[in-house]
């Protein structure tokens, strides 16, 4: 399946700034060509080892595992059945061959570890083979028998390709040792408890190819170019999955984490930023790096940055988060340079890209256990009360899953609507347990607006006391809309938080 053409429509970008969408013929101007792509693809092609992840339909997981481990000579796929396998590291595929009894009618597609995303797909011919016209990056491959097809007696599946650059690094270094600890304050991904490994440093060196004359900006552009190959999705099967390096599958957070980690290997300070609840029911993550006495914002999802000097591709004046949050990104003299066009697929993508997100996101700012983020949440009174439980925790209620300090310092700013002034109410927070490295008591507090808290303004959660997992806040409404800000004093550096599972609003008896 050919890649869809990226949508380029400046009218979808909120703001008055200029947009510069870097086409293929311009890439050498904006992205230093260090030769890493050619070096990656010049590695020897190999036959990939395959491991079963899951089967679909009524296919037998044990039978699939026996087949791909060589303990069985045959795998039967009935119409509608599928098998999802993982390659031994991400590869640039060149050929897929299937050996089966009789006629073969199967589809193959590159996917994620859940088998839900489609990055590339094709129908195998009757001989069971497919040679790719151009290499396709793949970590998970799904083989499917069509619903209207015939039963297939699969005898062999052979997948060939070139290992990804990071996979090559892992195979060639003697030991993937820790260079910077997961709790080191100079490690930008310490917020996720990820150490910087020697493989990250070797990867960065290969990307830069010893070109010491590159400026900090140019190094970041090379790193973002590398990240532009990553697929969009999620993966939790591998160490440091928050970076996506093992599988080349991630989302905006993973891209930003990878960029921050690569920057840190070069002595470039970096930090991660979150942008919540914008566009509606979504959010975004980006990265800032420090050089020339200032912070500069880069968005590795789109290979983008904001600048007042787009003609300068070596040392441009790149705006920082504070500049953008104060509205400077709307200046007509500012240009948003975008180098990863393939990820611009929809109007929502432009919502992440435009300057409006830096002004309208709520909450927004630097990640870290010491940086409080007040997530806006709401609950409308219903006759008999109102409940939000885990089944309703979704992207429309960002920040509802945590209260405390993890990679983000979560606070919850609740608005309770439809109340009767003068009426007494109970707002009950139920948690499953206290988590994190700090352990012991977790103390939470409530600050009220348009209400008088009459009971339990402060509450202590402790795993040794099951009754403490229920915090009943009693208050008297002074308006039909009441604000309850659930806060805590903890600011890290260790993780310390509760996991809420239900919020309930009832009238007090």
Describe the structure.
There is one protein chain. The chain has helices spanning 27-30, 36-41, 61-68, 165-172, 198-208, 216-227, 252-265, 321-325, 347-353, 356-360; strands spanning 18-21, 46-47, 50-56, 75-77, 82-100, 107-111, 120-123, 129-144, 152-163, 178-180, 196-197, 231-232, 249-250, 270-276, 283-291, 294-298, 304-307, 335-338, 364-366, 368-380, 386-389, 403-405, 408-417, 424-435, 442-449, 451-455, 458-461, 470-477, 481-487, 496-507. It has 509 residues and is α+β, with helices and mostly antiparallel strands. The strands form six sheets. Strands 20, 21, 22, 23, 24, 25, 26, 27, 28, 29 and 30 form an eleven-stranded mixed beta sheet that branches. A hairpin with a 2-residue loop joins β22 (403-405) and β23. The longest helix has 14 residues, at 252-265. InterPro entries: Papain-like_cys_pep_sf, Transglutaminase-like.
